[in-house]
Amino acid sequence: MAKKSSIEKNKRRIALVKQYSARRKRLKAAANDESLPMEERFTARLKLAELPRNSAAGRIRNRCEVSGRPRAYTRKMKMSRIALRELGSKGLIPGLVKSSW
């Protein structure tokens, strides 16, 4: 089980990304628009830099929904390999068959 603080920090980041996504998208579009004058593009970059760092989508860490583990995460199931194996062995994941030979 991951530390509770790490899990909660990631949840706060997800909320911040959702809150600032429209503003960040608008400022990035203005900063990258070559038809605008250089001053407007520069001010857009400055305003973008003033936004909280944790509002950037790249700072979100994929974590297991069951255990909060950050590594060996499968996107399809939204869980780590360990939780996937445990739940699959118990037969709690439909369509998943644990192989044995």
Automatic annotation (TrEMBL):
<dbReference type="GO" id="GO:0005737">
    <property type="term" value="C:cytoplasm"/>
</dbReference>
<dbReference type="GO" id="GO:0019843">
    <property type="term" value="F:rRNA binding"/>
</dbReference>
<dbReference type="GO" id="GO:0003735">
    <property type="term" value="F:structural constituent of ribosome"/>
</dbReference>
<protein>
    <recommendedName>
        <fullName>Small ribosomal subunit protein uS14</fullName>
    </recommendedName>
</protein>
<keyword id="KW-0694">RNA-binding</keyword>
<comment type="subunit">
    <text>Part of the 30S ribosomal subunit. Contacts proteins S3 and S10.</text>
</comment>
<keyword id="KW-0699">rRNA-binding</keyword>
<dbReference type="InterPro" id="IPR023036">
    <property type="entry name" value="Ribosomal_uS14_bac/plastid"/>
</dbReference>
<keyword id="KW-0687">Ribonucleoprotein</keyword>
<comment type="similarity">
    <text>Belongs to the universal ribosomal protein uS14 family.</text>
</comment>
<keyword id="KW-0689">Ribosomal protein</keyword>
<dbReference type="InterPro" id="IPR018271">
    <property type="entry name" value="Ribosomal_uS14_CS"/>
</dbReference>
<dbReference type="Pfam" id="PF00253">
    <property type="entry name" value="Ribosomal_S14"/>
</dbReference>
<dbReference type="GO" id="GO:0015935">
    <property type="term" value="C:small ribosomal subunit"/>
</dbReference>
<comment type="function">
    <text>Binds 16S rRNA, required for the assembly of 30S particles and may also be responsible for determining the conformation of the 16S rRNA at the A site.</text>
</comment>
<dbReference type="GO" id="GO:0006412">
    <property type="term" value="P:translation"/>
</dbReference>
<dbReference type="InterPro" id="IPR001209">
    <property type="entry name" value="Ribosomal_uS14"/>
</dbReference>
